[in-house]
Amino acid sequence: MTDWSTYLTPSTVHRQLGLFCLGAGEQRTAAANERALGCHAVVFLRHGTGHLLHGPGRTLHEVTAPALLWLFPGVLHGYRPATAWDQAWALFGGPATDALTTLGQLDQTSPVRRYADPRPLERAFTRLLRIARAPTPEVPAAGALFDLIATATATGEDGITDQLKQLARRPASIQTYAAELNLSVRELREAVRRATGSTPQEVVLTARLNEAKTLLAESDLPIATIARQVGYDDPAYFSRLFSARVGQSPREFRRIGSIAGPNSSL
Q1: pLDDT score for 72
Q2: Please, how many CA atoms are within 13 Å of residue 238, restricted to the half-sphere of its CB?
Q3: Residues 181-236: pLDDT tens digits?
Q4: Residue 93 — φ and ψ, nearest 5°?
Q5: In angstroms, what CA-CA distances link 12 with 15, 17, 18?
Q6: Least enclosed by CB within 10 Å: which of 4, 12, 152, 210?
Q7: Domain ranges within the chain, ordered by starting residue
Q8: CB 27 within 8 A of CB 5
Q9: Residue range 141-169: mean pLDDT, rounded
């Protein structure tokens, strides 16, 4: 691997995209001095082991490739490789980072994330690196950054949120869902918070509403049947909940809320 780097200076208009790339590169690195960046950074460690020193407490986090290291503006960090690190990196910023933090995509409490299957990350990072070296990278780089951050969350090693979504259509308490996932309620809440910045209750509700929308748009099933299929035994409660969250009643969504509804409205 040949070391290389490129740095970008987004214009005022490009900064309005919400997320912008400030630099990218690849390198084989030894120990790095402790410092704090003025922007966000993500490091894809392809090969190597060691530790990341992170935060004002200078906490050491174990690092074993393949892994992502998330570095935050103004937060002290330093590398402590036990072996040489082969890594790709990107610098980024923008107001969208606030929303991504709220959603749990960027989490300062989890600066190191490991991955059993690095291939999706490799593809996402390779795309970003290729775009960063192109003549006019600003707009496609914004899309590549969003894709990389989403891929990093979706391909995490636990997959708890995806499993919870699969359970969501069956009426049960959060305690029951946690038990079926072999977790305590606290562990379930923490896993969902790290993945989405939300709660298990919100994940369940969103999964049910999304499935209900699909059934309303693509089937002729009665609304009461759809309510039961997505986990609500009381169709009236389901309709009130759907209306409050979607801004349309199930009937209205079936009629005007989708691209192409079924032939029968009920």
Answers
A1: 96
A2: 25
A3: 888 888 888 888 777 778 999 999 999 999 999 999 888 899 999 999 999 999 99
A4: -160, -175
A5: 5, 9, 11
A6: 12
A7: 4-154, 158-266
A8: yes
A9: 82
CA distance 250 to 253: 5
Compute the residue count for the chain. 266
Q: Where do runs of H (alpha helix) occur along the chain?
A: 12-15, 96-102, 119-132, 138-154, 160-167, 174-180, 185-196, 200-218, 223-229, 235-246, 250-252
* Measured distance CA(145)–CA(44) in Å, rounded: 13
Place domain 4-154 in its CATH homologous superfamily: Regulatory protein AraC (2.60.120.280)
Q: Is 114 helix (H, G, I), strand (E, B) or coil?
A: strand
How many helices (H) and strands (E) in the chain? 11, 10
Structure tokens at 9: 């200076």
Q: If pLDDT is split at 50, 70 and 90, which confidence band does 155 have?
A: low
d(CA 150, CA 148): 5
What is the architecture of the domain spanning 158-266?
Answer: Orthogonal Bundle (1.10)
What is residue 181's three-state secondary structure?
Answer: coil
Burial class (CB in 10 A: 0-12, 13-18, 19+), 142: buried
